[in-house]
Design goal:
The protein is of the alpha/beta class and 371 residues long. It has two domains: 135 residues, Response regulator (Rossmann fold), CATH 3.40.50; 203 residues, Hypothetical protein af1432 (Orthogonal Bundle). The chain has 16 helices and five strands. It starts with a strand and ends with a helix. The structure holds fe (ii) ion.
């Protein structure tokens, strides 16, 4: 037996039909026009098993009702139309909108109504199975997507740890730079679909150092001119590396251009101004801010005011002045976010099974930053 909503403006027809359906053991709810019908369907938590509606009604006719009610029933409730002989012209439109059957009225054929309701209830079971199956598939797909995303994130963190050293202070720097890059990018209006590439680039900007010989990378003193030539290949090497991995390829812009300068005096391509991808210009400002305000084993953390003064001083030479201005606009938010950054950072490390990572000074910090 089912819960049936009957939408019919003629009281006598509604009474006859609902009495008949209730005599058959169904529960029957009524509405006198489409407007009331929509409200009943919308507010009904249990869900009707079948909806039967007249076509010609005041305020909202049956076709408009069928259209309006779709979002609430998600095609999981069979919808039948009550038609008088001269209303068959509406049939095609009703079918297009998803009606599954037509019931003749004036006069009713009660046997036909009985059979049609039974078929509709069977259809309802099929709809429910299909609906539940789709919901289950969607839930499984979401879970698989989450797992794949976690695997990707773990791979990125793994690459970053491989280059920077598996150390909490370096990881903290990478996570903070990633977070601040996203905040600044949103302020500037970078579309959401580009945000992932920026995050990856922030985490992997120095990945090209994997190919720099240790005698250069870990050299305690200054590099010679020849050694600098080698060191300056790391943006190109890193970009070439990620371009071979489809889910990392979007990070190539930041990796390739993270040592470019706004005035064209950077490397490897001496790009200038807006020829440098916006993501790389955003990264440069955030990376410099975080480097100045963070403690390293070879220096103390500087106050935010010192970092801002440095960004302003280098706006137009090292940094994009527009990006520096945007950074200053989000500074109050950055200062608020920094209060609980460590909680978010530790939670993310724990989620990736890296909760045991300790502050011990990164490989790069231990050998002093050279590039
Ligand atoms: Fe670098």
């Amino acid at each position: 037996m089912g819960r049936i909503l009957l939408v019919e403006d003629e009281d006598s027809l509604r009474d006859v039909l609902s009495r008949y359906l209730e005599a058959q053991g169904h529960t029957c709810d009524h509405a006198e026009n489409g407007e009331v019908g929509v409200a009943k369907v919308r507010d009904d938590a249990e869900g009707y098993d079948v909806i039967i509606s007249d076509i010609e009604m005041p305020k909202m006719d049956g076709l408009a009702f069928l259209r309006r009610v779709q979002p609430y029933v998600e095609s999981a409730t069979p919808f039948m139309i009550l038609t008088a002989y001269d209303e068959w012209k509406y049939a095609m439109e009703a079918i297009r909108l998803g009606a599954c059957n037509f019931l003749q009225k004036n006069p009713f054929d009660l046997a036909e109504i009985h059979n049609a309701v039974e078929r509709a209830l069977e259809l309802r079971q099929i709809y429910k199975l299909r609906h539940d199956y789709r919901a289950q598939l969607e839930a499984e797909l979401r879970e698989k997507t989450r797992e794949i995303q976690a695997t990707y994130d773990g791979t990125v963190i793994g690459f970053a740890a491989m280059i920077e050293g598996k150390d909490a202070s370096t990881m903290r720097h990478l996570f903070r730079v990633r977070e601040l890059c996203c905040l600044l990018a949103r302020e500037i209006g970078v579309p959401d679909k580009r945000m992932r590439d920026l995050e990856l680039g922030a985490m992997l900007h120095d990945i090209g150092k994997y190919a720099i010989p240790d005698n250069i990378l870990t050299k305690p003193g200054s590099l010679t001119d020849e050694e600098w030539v080698v060191m300056r290949t790391h943006p190109q090497l890193g970009a070439d590396f990620v371009r071979r991995i489809p889910f990392l390829a979007g990070a190539a812009d930041v990796i390739f251009c993270h040592h470019e300068r706004y005035d064209g005096a950077g490397y490897p391509s001496r790009l200038a101004g807006e020829d440098i991808p916006l993501s790389a210009r955003i990264f440069s400002v955030v990376d410099a801010f975080d480097a100045i305000t963070s403690e390293r084993c070879y220096k103390k953390a500087q106050p935010v005011s010192v970092a801002i003064a440095e960004l302003r001083r280098c706006a137009g030479t090292q940094f994009d002045p527009g990006v520096v201005e945007a950074f200053e606009r989000v500074l109050p938010t950055i200062e608020k976010m920094s209060a609980d950054f460590d909680t978010r950072f530790r939670a993310e490390l724990d989620a990736m099974g890296l909760g045991q990572v300790e502050d011990r000074g990164s490989r790069r910090e231990r050998i002093q930053k050279t590039a």
